[in-house]
User: Fold these one by one.
Assistant:
Number 1:
Amino acid sequence: MSKQYLDQSSPRAVSSKRSERMRRILSLLHEHTSRSLGDLARDLSVSEATLRRDLAELDEQGQLVRTHGGARERNSQPEIPVRLRNTSYKREKQYIARRTVDLIPTGPYALALSGGTTTAEVARGLRHRAGLTIVTNSLTIAMECATWPRLKVIMTGGVVRQSSFEAVGSLSEGAFRGINVGTCILGTDGISATGGVTTHDETEARTNHAMVENAGRVIVVADGSKIGRATLAKMADISEVDDLVTDSSADPEALKLIAAAGVEVHVVEMAISPVDEP
């Protein structure tokens, strides 16, 4: 396969440092709608030349609109692409995943996983489990799990969303409704007692609700920034959630309301980095 073909058909590789910078650009634009090149360069402590390259790539991907002297938010794309979320709250997600893995029974078991960086961390924590079947609509999770010989992986069909790499729509919904799983692990963009479990895209929300419907237990995994927040589309009512696993940065009042709604809340303390543990 030629290099030219790969360049045209595959997503560009993004370094961890650049990925975090691009994520912060989108977050700043989401907060302020538009920013000048100088303001962004100052906020991010980078040169304007570096920033121009980042803005050009994000504009090409349809994540923002470049303007004369800066950039503005693209209203139709409020969510940050999954490949730029990998460095966001990574340590918290690792702790959340470890606690979630402890909630999954050993032995033969079927588990559904939605897309997302936190659910991907959960999948990595399960890679040595024997007799486990993973059902997912996430291309990234399915590809990673397929390399682990102890796991059986079932990938749903559907239309792939560019920003999340999740297969959605009637094909994916039908697949989830045709399979019974012991536990569904749901990533989210927001969870609150009144708003339920939410995401940015209504089609993705419908697909994930089909996952919830045929699960014996529903576990939501969310870092502290998602607690008490509600986004556009509801994936599940709070009454459909059995467990929430989050970290100690979460709003305590929002957690109290979620617990009062009947959800078992598990809060992991952020003590030392996983790389420092023995």
Note: The chain has a mean pLDDT of 86.
Number 2:
Amino acid sequence: MTKLMLRATFGLTALAVAAPAFAQDISFWSWRQEDRAVYEDIIAAFEEQHPDINVNFEAFEAQNYNTILSTALAGDSGPDVMMVRAHGAFETVAAGGYLMPLTEETVPGLDTLPDAALAAETLSSDGQIYAVPFASQTMLVIYNKDIFDQLGLEEPSTWEDLMAVSQAIEDAGMFPFANGTATAWQNETIVSALGSSIIGKDFYNDLVAGETDFTDPRFVEALVAVQEASQYFPDGFVGLDYASSQQLFTSGMAGMFAGGSFEIANFMGQNPDLNLGVFPAPVAEEGDEHLVGLFFDGGYAGNADTEHPEAVQTFLSFLTTPEFGNMFANELGNISPIPGVEFERPLLQEVAQLNENSIPYIMLVHFRYEEPSGSVLLQAEVQRMLAGETTPEAAAQAVTEGIATYYEPFQD
């Protein structure tokens, strides 16, 4: 008999008596304080199926989470289950030996997840998976449909189309883009959101094969395009930070925002009346392939020293199910990598379809494992480029030289 059935039949007093005496308590840490209510619903659904396991959720401030988690794990006081970052940021925790290795046998359902998602939570030194991936993020352009409809505009396909749409919005007295560049990480996002189709799969494949570097004309062309688009950013955009850029868009003063799919939930939270659309990075020439940038945004890991390994593995297995994926996607507004998820929001379904034609978010996926990271280099150089302090060619050269200090294919 489930907890809800007991509650309905015998009342809360009987429920306390009927709860299994051997129930195991496991702790679950997150950096998503704003998602507490949803995670409590998720945990309730899990406990409904597993009345012998109690999951205690605790969330911390995101900026300090990594330090709090690492300190707790090193001091043997860490949680049983924890949210961890992906790719290079994930390696810091995984390489310390603090995480439980996961297999299809210990966590049923793990094998149903996409290889690229699992790779984001795989330790490079041993090839072992240590976390269940929870979301993908897509770099694209989000736009205000009401502004487009008001001006009779259609989603741009080519770069020429994008420039024409931008000019039309500016002529109407609004900002074409809300983006600013004062917050460094936004510069990397802007390059992927606007430049992925110009960068192209061929360049990406050649890059990871060690056959070219970032001075390649295909990558430089993408930087040139971003520089061209910046003429349609707000006045004083070099001093405009991330929060102010968001507010500019959600206030209806700008037509477009070059960013990640994670912005959709943020924007709707700030202004539920927004009528949003999305489109991939425009192509240089009609007929080229439209692409988005894609990365996986973290995972759920188990503590290698937990006193309740079977309970932890049971909970992690639940986090691979379509039941969880549907709750995660539709209540948190994110794209779950779990097969079979049904998106209630058409916009999320559209993003999921765009993901079928993508290239990885290059610096995060491949060049954020050593210092100086590709992300830090690109963010700084694009920031300087859009401020008029360097050129696309010089920016690409600086990024390549920085990565070449540790990456052998760039040293030839």
Note: The longest helix spans residues 184-208.
Number 3:
Amino acid sequence: MTATHHHEHAIRQLLESLVGALRAKDLDAVREIYAPDVVSFDVEPPLQHVGIDAKLRNWVRVFDTFATVDYELRDLALTVDDHVAFGHAFGRLGGTLADGTPVPGTWVRGTFGLRRDDDRWLVAHDQVSVPVDVRTGAAATDLEP
């Protein structure tokens, strides 16, 4: 296995572990995936969340809202070298709300910027976006990959 393939495999495992941590509502496991100085452009205000504590506050809100969490990451494409990597995929967050209401979720676009610290890959930046109808300003939440 070449170094590039090794790094890509490690990053895919890291992002799979993120999916597992979200489904388990395991905030400590989620923390281990992100760099301490992560910058996140998430779908919730404000425009940016800087640092791991700000990033985790978004997931705390999700975990408090949902009794069960389902998260899916699909069509992940990666570009990797020895020290940095970026990727993009489609993600969908759903589950069952605390009141028992099932939520199938909405597909979003996700971009990840990763860096290797020592021999460990961490998410240093992520961005989640929803397509917008520019004429109305409304989010296009009915699209599927």
Note: The domain at 3-129 is CATH 3.10.450.50 (Nuclear Transport Factor 2; Chain: A,).
